[in-house]
Amino acid sequence: MQPAEKDFQQLIEAMPLCILLHDAQTKEILWANRAALTVLGFTLEELIPLKAPDMTKHAPQYRRSVGLRWLEGAARTGQRAIEWCYRSKQGEEILAEAVATLVHLAERDVLMVQFRDISREEQVKRDLKRTESRLRAFMQDLAEGVVVLGPGGDIRFLSESAARLLAGEEHALLGENFLAWCDDASRERLAPRLALDPPDHAPYSVHYHLQRRDGQWRWHHATCRHIAIEDDLEGHLLLFRDVTEQVRAEESRRQSERKLEYLARYNAMGEMAVAIAHELSQPLAATRNFIEGTSIRLGQQGEIDPSVAWGLDSAVRQIEHASLIIKSVREYVVKLEQAEQVVDLNDLLHETRYFISLKAQDAGVRLDVEPSTEPLRVSCEKVLVGQVILNLAFNAIEEMAGLPAERRVLRMHTSVSDGKARLCVEDRGRGIDAGAQEKLFDGFFSSKVSGNGIGLALCKNIIGRHRGDIWAQNVEPSGAMFCFTLPLA
Fold first, then answer.
1. What is the pLDDT of residues 72-121, one digit of tens each?
2. Is 23 buried (19+), middle (13-18) or exposed (0-12) by CB count in 10 A?
3. Domains along the chain?
4. Could you give the CA distance from residue 417 to residue 395 in angstroms, rounded to a whole number?
5. pTM of this structure
6. For 271, phi and psi rounded to 5 degrees?
7. DSSP state of 477
């Protein structure tokens, strides 16, 4: 069945799209469907005689000449589109998307203008643009970063603040693998969460260590949850912040606590040493008196057997030796006033030499001490700096234990360097491993299974407290040298 002309008219009348017919030559309005009349608020009889200024917003971009050029272009090319603002009979402005199409009818050529109200759409666009601008302004200065990661760790979205925290550009970071920047332990924590299928929508917290694009390693704390925004964006949303300074402060606090534990431990050891030295001095003195008394009685009874006399004299000499050791311990360990005093670093080396020689003798280590020919007067807490010297020397002796005899040599020397007093302890051991060089003075580093030294970290702390520097280096052909400097008084 072929629809009649009236049927076509009925179809157009029923369309929700607004339609106006203009004469292709004169551009006058010929007809309008019901939807157009309803939107514009005119009857057909009122609409036909109207001109562009009568039904268009008064603005430069909607002048009659602009409308005529648009319709003329459609008559010439067959179709033209434009954004046009009509004005209804009630004065309401209607922003519309209009398309003019040339149609050849039996009687004449007409321009069929189809338009639809896009005011609401434009308002939504403006609202969205305004919201987006506000969000960008808010997120730009956030201390936190926002990223969305795929199951494999690929970055699907990131905020400007996130790019700033990662030290990169947004466009360059999109698509990069976030997990590849984390250390192994952090990757092991994050990867199972991201790859979970089905995803866990419950929020969770995670702590990870990541290398920024500028090469710096930073600690982040993140709150994460899975999101799915229709077909636009799906993945794990990470709201993270940089907590590196907090982590370092916490580590520094733990280091300080460990240092205090060390100091408390060695303070207790010092008190114990003084107490033991005090308790031993009396039995030793009594023993010496008993031996001397025995010698006198034996002499009164007659001539003493030479071997007995030698044994008694040797016992007395050993007691005198023990007494000398105890006296030295008491003089050195006894609590002194904890205030700086001006001392000669050469004298301090001489005072500690006795204790070092005892340990070196037991280990079969030859001790070479070469003090500076000139005085090295420094301001320091004598006990603390003396303990540093002992610790460096004891470490060197233990390092050379078990090595061939020709390599068991400990050399200690003092000198002036760049206007500072310098003391060096040099051994011929195995040297310092490359991997241990950086952390040698950090975290109470030790290569020994057990030990009673105060630790290199505390040595560094003591020397730093005295405005000095401490370092270590390998020497040729083998061995290591530990040195520290103190400002000359």
1. 999 999 999 999 999 999 988 888 899 999 999 888 899 999 998 887 77
2. middle
3. 5-119 (3.30.450.20), 141-242 (3.30.450.20), 253-333 (1.10.287.130), 341-487 (3.30.565.10)
4. 24
5. 0.42
6. -65, -40
7. S
